[in-house]
Design brief:
binds fe (ii) ion; 16 helices; mainly alpha
Length: 377
Amino acid sequence: MNTVKDRIVRYAKALNIMAIIARVFVIVGMVVTVLQMIATFSLNTPFMADFYDGGIEQIESILGRSALFQVLHDIADLSAMDPVYQKAIELFITLLSLLVLLLYIIFFQKLIGHIIKAQQPFSHESARRMTSGSWWLLLPVLINPVLGLALFMIMRFFAVIFEYGAYLQDQADETSRIQEEVIVSLAEITENKSEQTGQHIRRVSEYSRILARQLGYSPEAARNLRLASTMHDLGKLMIPSEILDKPGKLTDEEFAVIKKHPVYGEHLLHNVEGETMALARLVALEHHERYDGKGYPEGKQGEAISLDGRIVAVADVYDALTSRRSYKTAWDPKDAYDEIVKGSGTQFDARVVDAFKTAYDEIDATRRKYADDKPAA
Ligand SMILES: [Fe+2]
Ligand SMILES: [Fe+2]
């Protein structure tokens, strides 16, 4: 669906360039017509007479003799008129036709501009603009009835298609809104269950989005990772509260239980379908893997860990370091930064750490924005 949308926006951009070129041509045509009108009244000048004769033939060959002109011709019996006035009227009608064409191009560009700006062809606004604009397309009926009606019908047809597209888009938005609400609820449940009170999940997901953007993800893909990463600790729901909430250091056995939360998280999300859920599953499973292969649960190494997993790993550790936990105080952000940089190429993917360094101001601002409102228990 997104690639189709991208393609439509790309075509819209190409059409916009063509419309700009067409606009220049029409404006030049209008200027030439005005010059020719001046020339018709200066026929006694040989140069002007030549200019006039050549020009009118060219324009007539492009636009055809208009039906309106023919009607006027019949009513007023233009043939009996002074040829100079006859030609002047003909040129005036040509000028009007070009003006109408210019207005069409402007209308068309506004429509396309709307699609490019919204990055979204299927909106009710596009459909509305097409429907109201279609009435103007009836104007060529005066010049050519078949052409006018055809343009009108084509525009109406596209307006209906776009209206339907907008309806489908609404449905899709509604589905992803519901999905997002479910995801946020799941994340909140995890947050309440684990000792990570405050805003750990929100911060990790925002850091992940920032890192993803820095690494070249599209805004949509980065938003998707933000949402998926909110569920990275979902598996903690399966860990006994006595272990999760235990103050002080954990025993090796207890830590072994905690280390199962990535696999539990993956299992909990196993039967849920959808792009975001698939990503959430991956991130839940991989967020404690290390680039050097010394992480858990599978000890995956390097590129075997998905880039999404490598991103959330950095986001999660940075937040764990800068947050207060029952067994430790919050690190100074500068020390946490140094710790992340120190882990480049060993604990973390060096590319992700580079992105972390570049985007650090934004990450730091996010940390302050979503600071814990209450200290961890
Ligand atoms: Fe975790
Ligand atoms: Fe976490």
